[in-house]
Amino acid sequence: AVQMFGRFLDPRVVKSVTDGSTLATAEEGSSREISVLFSDIRGFTTLSETRSPEEIVRLLNRYFDTQVEAVFQEDGTLDKFIGDAIMAFWGAPMPTEDHALQAVRAALEMQRRLERFKQELGELGEIFDIGIGIHTGPAVVGFLGASRRLDYTAIGDTVNLASRIEGQTKGVARVLVSEATRDACEARAPGSFEFIDRGETKVKGRERPVRLFEPRSKT
């Protein structure tokens, strides 16, 4: 169990979540409120066409290292890499009331780390960018998959919407969050971030439009 959680969590918090109760909940699966983050690379196709596969792999690994550090810095759970995308969430396996705040802080830190990474890339940095989407809501969380290949993951509409929000960032903002995430942040720590209203948008699979906000740090 310790080894398994080590794939998803900062080593500093692995020990605290592998006590009996947390482990039992993870193995059985449970529904809880979490905040889900999706991050995707922009300009990846162009990069792939202009650089060797070896160079692309080295670049991606460096990028993933710095972004995962931002997730772990805010005690997030790294769910998976999906090609050149990252999925992470907060609120499980360790329950916390501050999951929305942590997710938004992580997104802003990912943005800061990206700027430093772009500078390191030189001219490549001009075409390398990311989009980040966050949504807060209920999801089923636990070890899912085949007995020989279990993943600790989250599934449900909340996860799907977070992914859709990430897709709406193109041409709007690098980071966008749902109204639910904005409201959760404001409920826990009013005024922690500046939230710029980016209007409503229709997303696939939902009848009602979703209102999106761009979070900005106040420091």
Topology readout:
Blueprint: H1 2-5, H2 11-17, H3 20-28, E1 30-42, H4 44-50, H5 53-73, E2 77-82, E3 85-90, H6 99-121, E4 129-146, E5 149-155, H7 157-167, E6 175-178, H8 179-188, E7 193-201, E8 210-217
What does this structure look like?
With 219 residues, this protein is α+β, with helices and mostly antiparallel strands. It has helices spanning 2-5, 11-17, 20-28, 44-50, 53-73, 99-121, 157-167, 179-188; strands at 30-42, 77-82, 85-90, 129-146, 149-155, 175-178, 193-201, 210-217. Strands 1, 2, 3, 4, 5, 6, 7 and 8 form an 8-stranded mixed beta sheet that branches. The chain is globular, with a radius of gyration of 17 Å. The relative contact order is 0.16.
- Helical content band: 40-55%
Dominant shape = globular
Which regions have little confidence, pLDDT < 50, spanning 5+ residues? Answer: none
Main β sheet profile: 8 strands, mixed
Number of strands: 8
N-C termini distance: 39 Å
Structural class based on helices, strands and sheet pairing: alpha+beta
Mean pLDDT: 87
Index terms:
single chain; 219 residues; alpha+beta; 42% helix; 32% strand
Provide a quick synopsis of the model:
This protein is an alpha+beta fold. The protein has helices spanning 2-5, 11-17, 20-28, 44-50, 53-73, 99-121, 157-167, 179-188, and strands at 30-42, 77-82, 85-90, 129-146, 149-155, 175-178, 193-201, 210-217. It has 8 helices and 8 strands, in the order αααβααββαββαβαββ.
